[in-house]
Amino acid sequence: MSPVDRVVAALREAGVDAEQRVRRATPEFVLAATGQEVGGVAPTGHPAPLRAVVDVDLAAHPLLWAGGGDHHTMVSLTYADLLRLTGGDEAAVA
Fold first, then answer.
1. In CATH, which superfamily holds the domain spanning 3-91?
2. Tens digit of pLDDT for each residue in 39-80?
3. What CA–CA distances, in Å, run from 8 to 11, 36, 42, 60, 83?
4. Alpha-carbon dihedral 40, 53, 78, 48, rounded to 10 degrees
5. 12: helix, coil or strand?
6. Whole-model pTM?
7. Residue 15 backbone dihedrals phi, psi, to 5 degrees
8. What gap in Å lies between CA 77 and CA 28, rounded to an integer?
9. What are the pLDDT digits (tens) for 14-47?
């Protein structure tokens, strides 16, 4: 199974319409959807709610690091924090 196939399978498992084409978002799309530039996108604080799929393999790490909303800021959080903040659906992505 290719990496893309695994992602599509994980999205289907999480209830996402996997018939839509899975592709990398453009920087313009990311900025419009999150209000933040690529390279510092935080998992929360977006103009409107975004659907999140959180890879269950992240649970193996005691501490996660994510963008803090700009190119100079990072935030640390636990897997449980990430799920709570994003309202994300857990799925085996990798």
1. YbaK/aminoacyl-tRNA synthetase-associated domain (3.90.960.10)
2. 999 999 999 998 888 989 999 999 999 999 999 999 999 999
3. 5, 26, 23, 22, 20
4. 50
5. helix
6. 0.75
7. 90, 15
8. 27
9. 676 656 666 778 899 999 999 999 999 999 999 9
